[in-house]
User: Which sequence fits this backbone?
């Protein structure tokens, strides 16, 4: 066994160097937060993955503590922590794994999981280098928190990410994903050195993109974009659901400078509800018109509140508002301008969170995070048209060729999901109005996935689903869309 140690390098800078002082600060920051409860309809689960910031504890410690506090009750379960962060000081071609046997902090030594690390040695994107780790803060600042909440019963697998793409990082993560004994920890701050107001606006959009499992985050959005993009791809593949725990920036501390701030967020990624917890497709598609009016109001008020139009905040979830709101559901929110042109469309293909939260998040993202369009402006509000689609369960299309796929599609009925390798795209059934022929529809779906119109591969997978669509004109007339 390798007995070399990577010593602590940041004591006295990012956190207190003396063990007693460090423990006291950690205790205070962890005590200041309480883990948010999961929705009443789903059991409490241990996070499988966490996003945490990596600034000095005085700046981001309480945001990080909101994530680490979630682990306390699971300290006996978690045996391994896979820790990934960006390489700030030394250039790394792909991913850098250390050759030492342990990492040290003022609170003691953490042994590395050498067996799991040896399982990565055949991957060309993994380099075995100690120099990038020597002074790197993105990983070290997480270690005292882990020691505080997990004790000494876990092993560490630390990886610094440089030029690795999402697919390369996903390949690594799949090998070490493990089961309930393994926690994936992603270290990243958000925006850097914007004014307070600019950072708030940008970080809100970035957080929504993370909650929607975006895999094209940039360094301007998050300094840990490289590890995040790959981790989010794997998290989506494993059906995790994302939950924002806390968000702030360095300007929020007492006496903080508002002219140049750094943004922070902590997000938990948990196993999604089991099949028995989901809204069944038939239940969704038979939902009443009253639910549609409520969802449209929630979507519109969410957007209006963000635009600062003086309208009340989105309605709080009440026990008797509608039984479907508290249960997991998948939705798409589509926006059109006064001329009927698409202005934004974002949604969820799987029911990972309560329906009311899903519609709120998708309404915000459709208005301000759809990269095909500029963020919505207040002057567009008067002509804005809102549409909410509730998705039924997707079923695989068992086809062996494109000809079989074209014959199986039902124009005007099917929404379709295309998945091939790391690419995925979907078109709602409403798109049949612009592409009435199956060949046109499938070609448009391929184009959205970044594939040529004549592309076909044996590994290409298609699934279809149905939707219940609510739009404001139909609901105002008392009719169904």
Assistant:
């Amino acid at each position: 066994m390798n007995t070399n140690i990577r010593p602590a390098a940041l004591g006295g800078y990012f956190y207190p160097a003396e063990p007693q002082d460090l423990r006291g600060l950690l205790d205070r920051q962890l005590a200041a937060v309480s883990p948010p409860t999961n929705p009443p309809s789903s059991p409490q689960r241990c996070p499988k993955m966490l996003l945490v910031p990596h600034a000095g504890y005085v700046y981001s410690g309480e945001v990080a503590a909101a994530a680490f506090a979630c682990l306390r009750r699971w300290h006996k379960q978690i045996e391994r922590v896979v820790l990934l962060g960006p390489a700030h000081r030394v250039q790394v071609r792909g991913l850098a794994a250390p050759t030492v046997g342990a990492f040290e902090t003022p609170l003691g030594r953490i042994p590395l999981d050498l067996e799991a690390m040896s399982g990565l040695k055949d991957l060309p994107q993994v380099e075995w280098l100690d120099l990038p780790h020597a002074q790197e803060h993105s990983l070290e600042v997480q270690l005292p928190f882990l020691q505080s909440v997990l004790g000494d019963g876990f092993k560490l697998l630390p990886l610094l990410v440089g030029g690795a793409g999402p697919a390369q990082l996903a390949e690594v993560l799949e090998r070490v994903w493990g089961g309930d004994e393994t926690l994936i920890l992603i270290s990243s701050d958000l925006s850097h050195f914007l004014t307070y107001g600019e950072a708030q606006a940008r970080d809100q959009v970035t957080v929504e993109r993370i909650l929607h499992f975006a895999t094209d985050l940039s360094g301007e959005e998050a300094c840990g974009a490289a590890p995040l993009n790959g981790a989010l791809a794997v998290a989506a593949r494993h059906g995790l659901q994302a939950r924002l725990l806390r968000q702030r920036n360095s300007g929020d501390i007492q006496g903080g400078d508002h002219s140049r701030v750094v943004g922070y967020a902590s997000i938990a990624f948990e196993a999604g509800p089991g099949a028995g917890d989901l809204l069944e497709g038939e239940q969704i598609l038979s939902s009443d018109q009253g639910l549609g009016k409520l969802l449209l109001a929630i979507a519109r008020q969410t957007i209006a509140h963000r635009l600062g139009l003086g309208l009340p905040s989105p309605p709080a979830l009440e026990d008797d508002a509608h039984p479907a709101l508290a249960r997991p559901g998948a939705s798409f929110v589509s926006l059109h301008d006064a001329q009927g042109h698409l202005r934004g469309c974002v949604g969820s293909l799987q029911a990972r969170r309560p329906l009311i939260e899903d519609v709120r998040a998708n309404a915000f993202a459709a208005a301000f995070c759809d990269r095909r369009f500029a963020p919505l402006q207040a002057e567009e509000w008067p002509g804005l048209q809102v549409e909410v689609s509730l998705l039924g369960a997707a079923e695989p299309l068992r086809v062996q060729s494109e000809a079989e796929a074209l014959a199986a599609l039902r124009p005007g009925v099917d929404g379709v999901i295309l998945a091939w390798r790391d690419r995925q795209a979907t078109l709602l059934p409403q798109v049949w109005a612009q592409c009435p022929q199956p060949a046109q529809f499938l070609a448009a779906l391929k184009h959205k996935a970044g594939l040529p119109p004549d592309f076909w591969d044996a590994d290409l997978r298609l699934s279809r689903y149905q939707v219940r669509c609510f739009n404001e004109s139909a609901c105002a007339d008392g009719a169904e869309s």
Summary: The radius of gyration is 23 Å. Residues 80 and 176 are 10 Å apart (CA to CA). The chain is about 30% helix and 20% strand.
